[in-house]
Design goal:
Blueprint lengths: L8 H6 L24 H6 L3 E3 L6 E6 L10 H13 L6 E9 L8 E11 L3 E10 L2 E11 L24 H7 L9 H9 L3 E6 L14 E8 L11 H16 L2 H7 L9 E11 L9 E11 L2 E9 L5 E12 L2
Antiparallel strand pairs: 1-2, 2-4, 3-6, 3-9, 4-5, 5-6, 7-8, 8-10, 9-12, 10-11, 11-12
């Protein structure tokens, strides 16, 4: 889609993450062509405490560059994750449920207000609401657990997935493919190649310019930071890594729906937007190497698609589960 198509009224009301492969450098204040680095992510979750206006605590954060008309939705999820975690002691985030209310400006400040809904011995609950230009743009509920002994079960990873070293990076694929560019510009190519803080390698293949591989409702993506994640003030390394999962999960979660519908990102007229998002953190997730993100389309109808994703370590340990519904419109 292009930046004029992506500003239709219902797409604007759906999500800050209205994605456009054809949006040019006018939509961002920063060049994404610099060497790949994970610093974009850690900059996104750098929060500044401020005086609350509505709830109990407040922080500000700045959305990061992207070649779409509005900010990446994963910025809001990760920033709200960080805000909620900074309000809780002695417990670990185990779930969060989000709604994207309005599009968010790129390179602009978002104010996150945290309401301390409950602090119990075993669990704590927070509401986080993001504000920009005087209006709510994002909201979530986050729950924290102290943890206790219990029985264990974990989902199994998909079998037969190639090792990430056997797969092309996004940069290698986009540099070598002869597929038509569609709405992809030089700016969006640079962003897909190295502007998202994480190396992403698709199985059976990417859906950037064309749907590579079978039109099936499953795919997998290997992800890892481009370099070692930097410390983030106010967060432990474990909390930073949970925020990293929340950040990176949104980039590709709708792709299994796009794959089965044969809709690549650069298809002229394609409009997508995140509507709501849920995530469960089952086990600590160190972001110091490759993780497998196995994804499956669940439903597509009435201009919306639903997908589920699961993160696994290379050895097969199930770390987290994601469910997201998004607007998917093609002309």
């Amino acid at each position: 889609m292009n930046d004029t198509q992506s500003t239709s009224s219902d797409a604007r009301s759906a999500d800050s993450d209205t994605r456009s492969a054809g949006a040019d450098s006018r939509t961002t204040n920063t060049d994404v062509r610099s060497a790949p680095t994970s610093a974009i992510f850690t900059a996104a979750i750098a929060l500044t405490p401020t005086e609350p206006e509505h709830f109990d605590l407040a922080f500000t954060a700045t959305t990061q560059p992207c070649p779409w008309p509005k900010a990446y939705g994963g910025d809001m999820v990760a920033q709200a994750t960080a805000a909620a975690m900074r309000s809780v002691e002695g417990k670990t985030l185990h779930s969060m449920h989000s709604y994207f209310l309005r599009p968010v400006d790129i390179g602009a400040e978002v104010r996150y207000e945290v309401e301390l809904l409950r602090d119990g011995r075993g669990y704590a609950t927070r509401q986080v609401r993001g504000f920009q230009n005087g209006k709510p743009v994002y909201t979530c509920l986050a729950n924290f657990a102290a943890g206790e002994p219990g029985a264990t079960f974990a989902a199994e990873p998909p079998v037969g997935v190639p090792d990430p070293t056997e797969l092309p990076s996004s940069d290698a694929y986009l540099s070598e493919t002869s597929a038509p560019r569609g709405t992809m510009t030089d700016t969006s190519e640079a962003y897909w190649s190295g502007g998202r803080s994480f190396d992403m390698r698709h199985v059976p293949g990417p859906v950037y310019l064309t749907v590579e591989g079978e039109r099936v409702p499953q795919q997998a993506v290997w992800v890892r930071p481009f370099d070692t994640l930097r410390p983030v003030d106010g967060l432990t390394d474990e909390q930073r890594d949970l925020a990293a999962l929340a950040y990176v999960c949104d980039y590709t979660i709708l792709e299994p729906v796009l794959r089965v519908l044969d809709l690549p990102w650069a298809l002229p007229g394609l409009i997508t937007a995140s509507l709501d998002h849920a995530m469960w953190f089952h086990r600590p997730a160190p972001m110091d190497g490759w993780l497998l993100y196995a994804q499956e389309a669940v439903a597509a109808d009435a201009g919306r698609g639903l997908a589920v994703g699961r993160f696994f370590t290379p050895s097969g340990t199930h770390l987290a589960t994601v469910v997201q519904e998004g607007l998917i419109r093609s002309s």
